[in-house]
Write a structure and sequence with these properties.
This protein is α/β, with parallel strands linked by helices and 391 residues long. The chain is built from 15 helices and twelve strands.
Length: 391
Amino acid sequence: MTFRLADRIVRLPEQFFSGLTRRVAAFQSQGYDVINLGQGNPDLPTPPHIVEALREAVLDPATHRYPPFRGLPELKEAAADFYRRTYGVKLDPEREVAILVGGKTGLVEVAELYLEPGDVALVPDPGYPDYLSGIALAGAKPYPLPITASNGYVPDLESVPESVWERAKVWYINYPNNPTGAGVTTSFFEQAIAKAHRHGVLIVHDFAYGAIGYDDHRPPSFMQVEGARETGIEIYTLSKTFNMAGWRVAFAVGNPQVIEHINLIQDHYYVSIFSAVQRASVAALRGPDDGIESLRQTYQRRRDAFLGALRSAGMDVPAPLGSFFCWIPLPSGASSVAFAEALLEEAHVAVAPGRGFGEHGEGHVRVGLLAPEDRLIEAAERMARFWATRF
């Protein structure tokens, strides 16, 4: 027997980075010392107080039953309190907070909720590839907004044709940005809100790296800006801020109607998240907050160590304002895929080719600061030696 996949599954984009993962594993299985900086998987452990909260919750038989469909009220309250403390934003826990099974899930769900075949979704290019997954499932079309060094990694909104704005229904924004590490001030959000309000476009701000800003840059929340609550939502994940990537917990905040619609679709997909994990997430969001600053400082030291080693070897590379990624330009005409494959094969350093993030990512590679400082320095030295043989 054969079974035909539904069209919505057939049109899903290829998972560009699955091949990289397999190649890294193949080299490691042969005994090579591979420094894997190609993925966005935090390498630090979840803080002990969160793990302890999980242990205690698992031992409570009350957590062994189905949780409420829309999440534990105390987790929504903790998320609202976190936003009040961190960003000065007041949220109604019941109407303006939705618990998500990981941030990626929410990004896909929004597309399923609001896009029809023929609609347009605006996406950053380069940008997080999984924005395209939900758009494809909905049968809509992505419209790439170039973010490059020439425009300061901020899209030129005036260059978008009026005909595109008329068809656009959802707009994905992401700062601090993956893969470029770029940041913005609230003035960009103000411009985006004005455009979205005029054209009836829902803004979805992916705030996955909100806790990680460098030097004097502290990433602002979209929700801090007047009009944000009317025009969109923000998705915040515990994966990066609290090193809880494998726990699959996030939340959306903002427009009450959109929050209700997210809850509606999740009523059909899930019975929320294991209650013990939700209780541990409450412990994460309620503090202590100094752990977040310590995390930021760790990534700052890693960024400075890695870039310092590259610059000492004569490579002039830009410093990111946020996220835990460095976005490294290659010499003109160089293929990011060929460079990444050769770097892995010859220097045993894994990086992500920029082409996997969109057409405007070509000519770059993304490096994750997801190893101790000594390993990052070694990776930079290997990369510099390899670079010298190529360019």
